[in-house]
Design a protein that fits this description.
- This protein is an alpha/beta fold.
- Helices cover about 55% and strands about 15% of the residues.
- The chain folds into two domains: about 150 residues, Rossmann fold; about 90 residues, ProC C-terminal domain-like fold, CATH 1.10.3730.10.
- The longest helix is centred in the C-terminal third of the chain and has 21 residues.
- The model has no long low-confidence stretch (mean pLDDT about 95).
Length: about 260
């Protein structure tokens, strides 16, 4: 059991604690005392009130803090991290490149990761890329750690902004679609509990069918859409609204903003 220190006990930090605590010795540094107490009581992890103690003998340090707090944090722990046989660093802070860490800490081994919200229930997907001083073994270690909260994918760092647009922000697209789907169902006369049951089960059932089917999404859509039928009438509205164009604009806007934040 290797020692992993998680700096930051927010939603993503908690998801990692939940996924890793059975196979690793977990230490957590969280400045919010109420939050730290909650994590200690619920997960029985070691809570460190001194960040230097938290990273002192860690084999892996996971940074799960807000991007705007990172520079100040690194100023405090830089000397302890940039040492012979120092820890592998994993950052899940959006918009911060591996060069951001290397510029401030030196020749450190860092892996950048972009998880998404379903990580909270162990169903996420995390894209990873390695900094210039991280080895393939380091990347494999990071991949194994993050596979505890979902699936993983190794990408080039130049593609991380696109990953952010597709999967990082992706849950919001799904939630917005469901939100409006339910509102439209209520407008047809269904009570909220009925709309929820119809929409949620249709959503989850369709997602499972897509995952298990030998057919892709376009083929399955065509199978549901009989010529001149009810589904065709609905598809015509999507087509007239240029839904395909909207999705491309959505992803382009998210990618552009991710690139701006990384500068």
């Amino acid at each position: 059991m290797s020692k992993i220190t998680i700096i930051g006990g927010g939603n993503m930090g908690e998801a990692l604690i939940k996924g890793l605590r059975k196979a690793h010795r977990i230490s957590v540094f969280e400045i919010n005392t109420a939050r730290a107490k909650y994590l200690k009581q619920k997960y029985k992890v070691s809570i460190k009130d001194n960040i230097h103690c938290a990273v002192d003998d860690a084999k892996v340090v996971i940074f799960a803090v807000k991007p705007q707090d990172m520079a100040g944090l690194l100023d405090h722990v830089g000397a302890m991290i940039n040492r012979p046989h120092g820890p592998l660093l994993i950052s899940i802070a959006a918009g911060l490149t591996t060069k951001f860490f290397e510029k401030r800490l030196g020749r450190v081994r860092v892996v950048r990761a972009m998880p998404n919200m379903p990580t909270l229930i162990g169903e996420g997907i995390t894209a990873l890329c390695a900094g210039q001083y991280a080895s393939s073994k380091d990347l494999a270690v990071a991949q194994k750690i993050l596979s505890s909260v979902g699936k993983t994918m190794v990408v080039k760092e130049k593609d991380i902004d696109a990953v952010t647009a597709v999967s990082g922000s992706g849950p919001a697209y799904v939630f917005l679609f469901v939100e409006q789907w339910m509102a439209a169902a209520r407008a047809l006369g269904f009570k909220d509990v009925q709309a929820r049951a119809l929409v949620y089960q249709t959503l989850t059932g369709s997602a499972h069918l897509l995952e298990k089917s030998v057919f892709d999404a376009g083929t399955l859509r065509a199978k549901v859409t009989s010529k001149g039928g009810t589904t065709q009438a609905a598809m015509n509205v999507f087509s007239q609204a240029r839904f395909d164009h909207i999705m491309k604009k959505v992803l382009s806007a998210a990618k552009k903003r991710a690139s701006e934040l990384a500068k």
